[in-house]
């Protein structure tokens, strides 16, 4: 009998330990004040042993109806049938668990099998047979009345909690037939029928109690397994049985519960972590479980929740909790404690207490001998492994976002909560990395200061200084404890880590100096590989750094970063002098490594590097030359990148910063920084600043340095047209010879060739410039290939030279090649690309015939102006060159008014240009020359007289030596001389005009060669000036007419070949030839009329009927028709009137060209038509 009672007690104890009350029937607990979610903040709970009786689950009576009362109680088959019925009822009544993975499903199946096989087959079968037999025997021996009364009353009281007594009784009575309910005293009749009914009822009562107890055990087991995903629960299951209906089963006594903390109402989330803990917990075994994670992440709260759930599941499990106080006092449970005991060790940040002492006598050694399960809380995996194997570590990461939002909302004051949106709450939680400690601290700051979440977000996102202020003391509202503060020791104890792991702290601090986010591994390539493995193992084991293997980067936990920032930024004591010096050395080392790995100009992936660089040098002193040079190198690389992108202004800023941090005197290795600055000043046309920097540049740093300075000074002289470009040409030729005779890289030699070619072009020696430019292009193609950037530069330079040399079609091919290449390398908005577009537009304007072609060139130039203005400046010489080209296009289209205004505007800006002598700079003189040409066409030769004379004088003084002999000419000067001759001829000063046109022709042939288009233009105008000086009669007249006609025909042939038959230069030559034929008279006048008609139609087709040259050609045709006897006089008058009306319409009735047209019409009428 005693064995049977022990079995019943064991079953009873097991059923109680596995029972979890239905939340619908469990009274709601009293609300508790919110607790700080920290390891230290939980209030202490007095240690006591509960003696309250354990409540038994509500009995389910329905299953008992399936067991016939007549079944043989000694036969175990009905009991097994009872079990099967119970299981079927549970399957039908219990809610199905949510689908889970195979591992959990297998675990549940194993658990149910174990419960059925062990708890049911062994305990239930034996308990049912023995308990029923004893109950029946004792019931027969004693009085039926006593047996029935005690069986009914005691069974209900023992099997159900007090709250369910009435319900059970009611349900039991409901099961009885109605005739039995109205029977006044069913026990008074000792008839055997009554006894059988009572025995049946006793059997039913016992079976019902057993059935419901079994159902409760199995149901609770399944619910617990499904809810917590526990791999192994304590294997127990037994049936509550009574030896007699009169025996009362004593309530089991709960095991010791030494728990200093109450259950936290703030606990949220951590479902997977709890599941892992239950999976690692093996009651009765010598288990070791490690709960590890960053400080403030919630290890203590997780362990508290785990302990309370274990208590609910197994009240018989002794539970102990050791804090720092117990560890310091040595109050540790005996190693001989029960094997099913659970011991939680929480050393907080004082893990050293466990390791203190001699080997085998340390606390950690004592813990190894503990018979039960030890749960160790630690802030690093390394500490956890002091007691726990790696596979039994439960690593705690950041709290789930949804749980973080719930925690934050629960701790947020009502005022802040009312004005906060869900998205703001979520954003704050994400910003503080879903750290429970940080969430609660932020909520407290918001509640104490009265700020709302919008204000907090604004402040927090302003930068690290505001983050530190928000987490620090805010008088007079917020006074966070340093030990629990997020930026104190609450997350990471910087000083302790530094003192414990001094050699590993270097890596952590260098990550901090680099900003701590996505730091490339390459920066730490100087570390010993094995040391790096060890460092990462330790650092990651402390949960301080996350490694991104796919991107090869490291990132410090944001709260750890703030903690280090706070530690470095706070007032340091004198005793920390060694640490401060050590940090400076670490900083210097990482700056050097950062500088060495900083991306070069070709890399576009530099956003992180730029942000990191700004952080790296912010707030730190460059206390030695090594740091200064490293920082200057970074600035230089950034400058080179901006230059490659065509962002010259930004590149110059970086170059200036680089130079400003360089030591003085500048080391030889860093002279390139100054050279970059000078180059950028040249590209930005800041020539005065360029001159100033060159004056301060020392050429005593070696031959290369001296050659570079000489080259840049020559470029500056070339830009200012010093000494008629002679100095620049001579210097560049000397440098080219020196480069070819030295061991300089070929790229430097080709660059010297470019310099010589450009200087010769500016000098006006186009043929010589073309020769050396072609050579540079060929050499670069052979050495670097056709797609090399410098090869495209050679194409660009050669195109410029060829355009000036009159090789228009060839120039267009080369500039198109350069443009395509540069656009593919630099993009469409780079100044180099745009410069090639400007040259192309100039070539298109030179060869333009139709209005559409002029429009194409103008559109290209307008685009260039917009893009250059954004990259350079409105007054940059290249922008002004575009405007000057547009003025020429307006002139070619006959828009004299627009051409005049644009030329005047450009001239005014150029007179204030960046050169040393802007008023007489060649670019300024170009604007003056173009303005003089516009004035001649728009208002006549008299209006252009003074300006044309001044421009010729200034160009001669600036561009030549003024001798007007030999090769002492410049193409620009000759253009002004050519124009001056036309003006003088128009003013009737034919002799002087003839002298100047002859000189211009001779100079152009000498400088440009016999095949240049400008030579043929001068030739045809020379013929026209000669026509104005023809003798009225005599053989000399005929000879001159023949000579002039020969000149015109030769010029017309060559211009037609160069530009085509309808180009304005070609038509001008044809007009001069037609005028000559008209002058010859006789049969030649018919040829003149025919030629005038062709010219008129050509102009009309190309530039339209209202173009001034079209109207002039129409008037000349009318004049030729008037002089012809075969022509219709009325048709001639009609053409004259149309011409005059066209001028009036296009330029106004008061315009010079309109008045001149009417005067010529009147003259023609008087001469021919009125005769």
TrEMBL record:
Q: Which SUPFAM superfamilies match?
A: P-loop containing nucleoside triphosphate hydrolases, TPR-like
Q: Name one Pfam family in it.
A: TPR_10
Skewed-composition ranges (Acidic residues): 29-42, 63-78
**Disordered as annotated region, ranges:** 1-78
Do you know which InterPro entries this protein is assigned to?
NLR-like, P-loop_NTPase, TPR-like_helical_dom_sf
Protein's UniProt name: Related to kinesin light chain
Record organism: Phialocephala subalpina
Instruction: State the taxonomy lineage.
Output: Eukaryota, Fungi, Dikarya, Ascomycota, Pezizomycotina
């Amino acid at each position: 009998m005693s064995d049977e009672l022990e079995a019943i007690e064991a079953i009873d104890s097991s059923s109680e330990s596995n029972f979890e009350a239905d939340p619908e029937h469990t009274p709601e607990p009293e609300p508790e004040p919110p607790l700080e979610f920290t390891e230290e903040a939980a209030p202490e709970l007095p240690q006591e042993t509960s003696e309250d009786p354990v409540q038994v689950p509500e009995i389910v009576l329905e299953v008992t109806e399936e067991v016939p009362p007549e079944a043989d109680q000694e036969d175990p088959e009905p009991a097994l049938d009872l079990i099967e019925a119970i299981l079927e009822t549970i399957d039908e009544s219990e809610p199905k668990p949510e689908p889970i993975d195979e591992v959990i499903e297998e675990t549940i199946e194993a658990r149910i099998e174990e419960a059925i096989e062990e708890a049911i087959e062994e305990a239930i079968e034996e308990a049912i047979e023995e308990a029923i037999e004893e109950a029946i025997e004792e019931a027969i021996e004693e009085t039926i009345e006593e047996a029935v009364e005690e069986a009914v009353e005691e069974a209900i009281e023992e099997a159900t909690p007090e709250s369910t007594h009435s319900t059970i009784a009611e349900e039991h009575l409901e099961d009885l037939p109605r005739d039995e309910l109205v029977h006044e005293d069913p026990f008074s009749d000792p008839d055997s029928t009554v006894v059988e009914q009572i025995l049946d009822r006793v059997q039913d009562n016992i079976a019902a109690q057993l059935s419901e107890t079994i159902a409760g055990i199995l149901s609770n087991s399944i619910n617990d397994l499904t809810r917590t995903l526990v791999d192994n629960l304590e294997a127990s299951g037994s049936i509550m049985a009574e030896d007699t209906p009169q025996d009362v089963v004593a309530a089991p006594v709960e095991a010791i519960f030494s728990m200093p903390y109450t259950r936290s109402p703030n606990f949220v989330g951590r479902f997977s972590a709890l599941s892992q803990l239950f999976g690692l917990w093996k009651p009765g075994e010598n288990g070791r479980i490690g709960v590890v994670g960053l400080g403030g992440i919630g290890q203590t709260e997780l362990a508290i929740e785990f302990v309370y759930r274990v208590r609910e599941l197994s009240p018989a499990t002794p539970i102990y909790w050791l804090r720092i106080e117990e560890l310091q006092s040595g109050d540790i449970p005996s190693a001989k404690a029960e094997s099913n005991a659970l011991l939680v060790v929480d050393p907080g940040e004082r893990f050293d207490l466990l390791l203190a002492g001699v080997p085998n006598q340390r606390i950690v050694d004592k813990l190894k001998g503990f018979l039960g399960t030890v749960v160790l809380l630690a802030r690093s995996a390394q500490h956890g492994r002091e007691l726990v194997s790696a596979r039994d570590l439960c690593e705690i990461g950041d709290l789930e976002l949804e749980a973080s939002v719930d925690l934050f909302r629960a701790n947020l004051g009502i005022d802040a909560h009312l004005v906060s949106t869900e998205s703001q709450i979520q954003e704050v939680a994400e910003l503080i990395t879903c750290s429970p400690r940080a969430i609660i601290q932020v909520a407290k700051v918001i509640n104490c200061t009265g700020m709302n979440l919008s204000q907090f977000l604004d402040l927090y996102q302003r930068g690290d200084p505001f983050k530190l202020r928000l987490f620090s003391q805010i008088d007079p509202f917020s006074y966070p404890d340093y030990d629990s503060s997020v930026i104190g020791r609450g997350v990471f104890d910087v000083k302790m880590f530094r003192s414990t792991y001094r050699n590993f702290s270097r890596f952590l601090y260098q990550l901090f100096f680099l900003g701590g986010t996505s730091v490339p591994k390459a920066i730490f390539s100087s570390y010993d590989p094995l040391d790096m493995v060890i460092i990462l193992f330790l650092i990651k084991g402390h949960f301080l750094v996350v490694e991104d293997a796919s991107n090869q980067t490291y990132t410090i936990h944001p709260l750890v970063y703030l903690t280090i920032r706070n530690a470095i930024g706070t007032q340091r004591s004198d005793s920390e002098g060694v640490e401060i010096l050590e940090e400076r050395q670490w900083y210097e080392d990482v700056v050097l490594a950062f500088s060495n790995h900083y991306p070069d100009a070709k890399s576009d992936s530099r956003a992180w590097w730029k942000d990191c660089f700004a952080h790296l040098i912010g707030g730190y002193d460059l206390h030695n030359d090594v740091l200064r040079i490293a920082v200057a190198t970074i600035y230089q690389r950034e400058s080179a990148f901006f230059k490659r992108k065509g962002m010259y202004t930004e590149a110059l800023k970086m170059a200036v910063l680089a130079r400003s941090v360089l030591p003085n005197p500048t080391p030889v290795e860093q002279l390139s920084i100054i050279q970059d600055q000078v180059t950028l000043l040249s590209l930005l046309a800041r020539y005065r600043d360029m001159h100033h920097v060159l004056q301060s540049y020392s050429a005593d740093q070696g031959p290369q340095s001296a050659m570079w300075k000489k080259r840049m000074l020559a470029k500056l002289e070339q830009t200012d047209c010093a000494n008629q470009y002679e100095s620049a040409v001579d210097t560049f030729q000397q440098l080219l010879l020196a480069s070819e005779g030295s061991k300089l890289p070929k790229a430097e030699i080709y660059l010297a060739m470019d310099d010589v070619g450009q200087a010769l072009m500016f000098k006006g020696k186009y043929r010589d410039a073309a020769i050396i430019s072609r050579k540079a292009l060929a050499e670069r193609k052979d050495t670097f290939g056709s797609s090399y950037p410098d090869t495209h530069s050679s194409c660009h330079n050669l195109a410029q030279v060829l355009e000036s040399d009159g090789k228009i079609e060839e120039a267009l091919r080369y500039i198109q090649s350069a443009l395509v290449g540069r656009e593919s390398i630099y993009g469409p908005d780079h100044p180099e690309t745009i410069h090639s577009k400007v040259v192309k537009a100039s070539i298109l304007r030179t060869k333009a015939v139709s209005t559409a072609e002029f429009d194409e060139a103008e559109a290209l130039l307008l685009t260039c102006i917009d893009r250059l203005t954004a990259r350079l400046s409105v007054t940059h010489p290249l922008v002004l060159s575009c405007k000057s080209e547009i003025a020429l296009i307006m002139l070619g289209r006959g828009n004299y008014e627009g051409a005049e205004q644009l030329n005047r505007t450009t001239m005014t800006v150029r007179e204030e240009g960046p050169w040393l002598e802007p008023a007489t700079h060649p670019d300024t003189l170009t604007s003056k020359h173009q303005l003089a040409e516009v004035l001649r066409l728009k208002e006549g030769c008299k209006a252009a007289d003074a300006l044309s004379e001044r421009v010729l004088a200034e160009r001669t003084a600036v561009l030549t030596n003024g001798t007007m002999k030999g090769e002492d000419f410049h193409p620009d000067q000759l253009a002004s001389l050519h124009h001056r001759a036309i003006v003088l001829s128009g003013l009737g000063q034919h002799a002087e005009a003839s002298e100047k046109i002859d000189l211009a022709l001779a100079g152009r042939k000498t400088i440009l060669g016999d095949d240049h288009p400008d030579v043929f233009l001068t030739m045809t105008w020379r013929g026209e000036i000669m026509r104005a000086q023809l003798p009225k009669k005599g053989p000399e007249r005929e000879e001159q007419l023949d000579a002039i006609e020969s000149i015109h025909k030769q010029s017309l042939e060559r211009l037609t070949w160069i530009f085509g038959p309808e180009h304005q230069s070609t038509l001008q030559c044809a007009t001069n030839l037609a005028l000559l034929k008209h002058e010859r008279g006789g049969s030649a006048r018919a040829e003149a009329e025919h030629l005038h008609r062709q010219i008129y139609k050509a102009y009309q087709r190309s530039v339209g009927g209202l173009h001034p040259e079209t109207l002039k050609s129409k008037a000349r045709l009318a004049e030729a028709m008037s002089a012809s006897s075969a022509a219709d006089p009325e048709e001639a008058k009609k053409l004259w009137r149309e011409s005059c009306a066209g001028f009036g319409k296009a330029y106004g009735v008061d315009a010079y060209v309109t008045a001149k047209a009417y005067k010529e019409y009147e003259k023609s009428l008087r001469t021919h038509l009125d005769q």
